[in-house]
Amino acid sequence: MKRKILGWILVIGLGGLWLASMILPPAAPAIQPAVISTATPEGTPVPELSLTLTANRLAKPVMSSPPTQADKGAEYYWFVCLPCHGDKGQGLTDEWRTVYGPEEMNCWQSGCHGKRHPPEGFELPHIVPPVLGATALGRFNNAEELHHVIATSMPWYRPSYMTAEQSWQVTAYLLRQQGIMPPNVTLNEGNTPIFRLRTQAPAVEEERPVTAAIIGLLVVGVVGIVWHYRKRAER
Question: What is the pTM of this model?
């Protein structure tokens, strides 16, 4: 008789455990910062940079012969993008502005790039984001999204200044500097989705089992107490 009672209690308890696991909401995944994926298609090794570093941070980059798509992008970056985004893609940091010299480093004050700039000038943002570095491009899922932003909104002061070919070249340069694009690859509409710039945040294991077990044990206890007092009342 006691075994039968214990068997029923066990069945009811397992049922309560299952019910609790079904009705409890899943735990929310933890928010992870976007990170740059350095994986290349089909395991292609990360290439060595072909640009020659020079002591002068404002010097024109030295390209290979014949220049690659990324080499041409490096030259365009130096000519147009470097003043705002930095020689290392670090953005318009205080350190980078010191390279300009005392007369140009605070050009907002002189008026050439302030709110009251002359017609041939433009207002320069005080904050310019980095475009190179561990998490600089993490807001983009892949190179396709990065290229779209470059082609439609850069340079900031005159988006129509860049040609379609130059937008591909600059995108290729940034990917190469990040170690994402292998050599001898020409970037185009067909292969930009391949190059990932953001990885999915790992899912966090659900915390339901422990809570469900506790609720199940409570159900077992309540059922056992109710059954016990009911039997006593029948006597």
Answer: 0.62
